[in-house]
Design goal:
Blueprint lengths: L4 H15 L3 H26 L18 H4 L1
Helix pairs in contact: 1-2
């Protein structure tokens, strides 16, 4: 099973927090989402025997976040 589902969950939590006025929580969840994306990309790269995303390979999970989620 893919680990990418966690990005959807974190994004949903971030959106609910923002809608309920929890600005700091929403901001922190945005950061956590970026950490999860990096970790998933690194894990996928390791499993595929390829360089990690921070080594110049963009992983598929990064495509799941809208620009507004990382801004």
């Amino acid at each position: 099973m893919s680990n990418e589902w966690i990005i959807d969950v974190l994004t949903d939590l971030k959106n609910v927090a923002a809608q309920n006025g929890l600005r700091t929580t929403a901001s922190e969840l945005k950061d956590v989402c970026l950490v999860a994306l990096a970790e998933i990309a690194a894990l996928e790269a390791k499993n595929a025997g390829q360089p990690a995303a921070h080594e110049g390979r963009a992983g598929k999970p990064g495509q799941q976040l809208a620009e507004s989620d990382v801004a």
